[in-house]
Design a protein that fits this description.
The protein has 226 residues and is α/β, with parallel strands linked by helices. The chain folds into three domains: 73 residues, Histidine-containing Protein, Chain: A (2-Layer Sandwich), CATH 3.30.1340; 72 residues, Histidine-containing Protein, Chain: A, CATH 3.30.1340; 66 residues, Histidine-containing Protein, Chain: A (2-Layer Sandwich). It is built from seven helices and eleven strands. Strand 9 and strand 10 form a beta hairpin. Helix 2 packs across helix 3. The chain is flat.
Amino acid sequence: MSAKMQTKSDSQIQQEVLRELKWDTRVEETEVGVTVERGIVTLTGTLSGYAKKLAAQEAAHRVFGVLDVANDIQVRVPGNMARTDAEIAQALRSALEWDVWVDHDRIKSTVSNGWVTLEGEVTLFRELDDVERVVRRLTGVRGLTNRIVVKPVKINAEDVREAIEEALERRAEREARHIKVEVHEGAVKLSGPVRSWAEKRAILGIVRHAPGVKAVEEHLFVDLMF
């Protein structure tokens, strides 16, 4: 790793985050403010949709040198995009029914002032992401609370751990000696260094697909010297 990459200043990170926001066509970058302190980025401003707020967060995380992101962006839906809670609920139900990865009969939603709350049960941890993906792209949604419970088929903890480690090694997302995987009653705990937020996200994505996982507690940290 070069010395330049290791000593990137907060002002450099700020400028690169701003350029990344401009590059991402999903984000109205002129509406987003960016401040950086010791590698921690704070996003502020107002955007017209929940998906755009998350897109801005993802763009900031993609910049090398960013350790954490505090997303203080507010969502305000303009008049021409405004939807009643009933319209959002109906659109959400239709979207869930049409999504091949979602068992819509097990999911219930409540919409209040554009804020969606999800409840129900699923058998795979990755289904939480599948349902959230459906919600956040709907027009009129201002935010999301996910209270869906994961109730997986019971699998031996050692088998779950071995399956996760094999999957990580197979995709070359980490070296076995650096990431510790612990499993207790379906709850997976991950700890250790990663080289970037993208690698951290990839590792979490792999774990979410493992059968028998009902929760993930992660203590992965970005180490620029790793």
